[in-house]
């Protein structure tokens, strides 16, 4: 504060120099952080890649020749896509309600929406089984008498996946929606646009990128869900076994090469997802 | 459609908020129905199942020797890992924001990997460096150390990603002023920077703790789930489900749910405090 009285504010050029001031502590912390991340993340992850390609492309080729593995991967993709679509529609609607309207219980709802991030996936699975299980669940027996089996079947896998990834779209969209404000929407309405037109032409384009981030993150999370799916799916070979369950099964059956190969595929998809998001974010920040 | 009938929103109310119109009313009804069917009713079922047998059944399920050991290990490991994360997470965020060196942006991507990797793959990843045929000669597989290691891996991003944006938005002029008034770098950090970072660190720490307490996937292959040694609470719940004992499963699950709820409340309080300060 005294600085500004004694001397006029400096031009912004010295910012870089100030940052460049480095003591031994700087180097020590840098070394510590790099070593920590190398030992905890970089090295272990790179080992999975080398294990997968130990025998060239053989491991990946055998994977695609096994009909059960192909089925598991297809099931994972289907469940992830359906769950992502559901969460996107739900997430955008809830975000609009949270930011644009007032209703009783709003604060409780917005806190509860974060709950899936803090709950054990096994608890998620148990909760769904207790309600939708065919034997003794709250709604399960009734639904099954209508011919709709949820637990130990694909709908259960979709529910579990949707549950664990629930807040991801909302967390991306809510802050952006608040920032965009409502002036443009009001202008559109005063020019005679109805609610639907305002949403499609004004609101949606404004939150487009937030939705894209949310969708990519949801997809990555959904493809990799393991614990909750394990409880609700029953892990039936060729029916309800997903790709992540196949990793466990292969490893426990001493097919380490197969386990590493599926793990590599899953990891590549999820790492690709985060790289896409970080590139998009960096580009958005640059504008 | 009916939004136009409300007249001019924003005239009498704070900007950006409108009372419910018919469209948004229907939207609220539909989303709340889905949210209830997916989240609220199933979670209520867990609590109801746990309490159906009365307090004594609940208590004996929790204090079962094997279960209580698993719960203690889980809470202990989650706490220890959260403490490590408070220091390492802040240091990592500091390096990412303030330091400049070749390869720094690669580190930034590394932070997200534990979030992105499927948990079962995370377990496999750790097993390849710290398992039976470890190139380092460190084998933690099937020991309680594996629980600490897995928690460290999966909770890595929480504090870093909370602290990073706050650190980026800090005004360097205040630090300069402190330094020009004779404050040492340590004093500047403790008195100027740390108070601004504290809410972000606290929020990240609660999330990291919650994640640790509920972790399952990364432990499956790594810890071997040995009773009294490397078994965590989630594994006990799964065991009870597989032994067709939903009451015991729900009892332990309720305990974890209470932890989750406390975390959510803590987060809400922290966020509100920060919002008020702004």
UniProtKB/TrEMBL annotation, chain A:
It is found in: Membrane. The chain crosses the membrane at residues 27-53, 73-99, 111-134, 146-170, 206-224, 259-280. Keywords: Membrane, Sulfate transport, Transmembrane, Transmembrane helix, Transport. It is a multi-pass membrane protein. Its main location: membrane. One of its GO terms (cellular component) is plasma membrane. The keyword Transport applies. GO terms for molecular function: ABC-type sulfate transporter activity. Residues 73-281 form the ABC transmembrane type-1 domain. SUPFAM superfamilies: MetI-like. Part of the ABC transporter complex CysAWTP (TC 3.A.1.6.1) involved in sulfate/thiosulfate import. Probably responsible for the translocation of the substrate across the membrane. The complex is composed of two ATP-binding proteins (CysA), two transmembrane proteins (CysT and CysW) and a solute-binding protein (CysP). This is Sulfate ABC transporter permease subunit CysW. The gene is cysW.
TrEMBL record, chain B:
Keywords: Membrane, Sulfate transport, Transmembrane, Transmembrane helix, Transport. InterPro entries: CysT_permease (IPR011865), MetI-like (IPR000515), MetI-like_sf (IPR035906), Sulph_transpt2 (IPR005667). The keyword Transmembrane helix applies. It is a multi-pass membrane protein. The chain crosses the membrane at residues 26-50, 70-97, 109-131, 143-160, 248-270. It is found in: Membrane. GO terms for cellular component: plasma membrane. Pfam families: BPD_transp_1 (PF00528). CDD domains: TM_PBP2. Residues 71-267 form the ABC transmembrane type-1 domain. One of its GO terms (molecular function) is ABC-type sulfate transporter activity. Part of the ABC transporter complex CysAWTP (TC 3.A.1.6.1) involved in sulfate/thiosulfate import. Probably responsible for the translocation of the substrate across the membrane. Part of the ABC transporter complex (TC 3.A.1.6.1) involved in sulfate/thiosulfate import. The complex is composed of two ATP-binding proteins (CysA), two transmembrane proteins (CysT and CysW) and a solute-binding protein (CysP). Belongs to the binding-protein-dependent transport system permease family. CysTW subfamily. This is Sulfate transport system permease protein CysT. It comes from Aeromicrobium flavum. The gene is cysT.
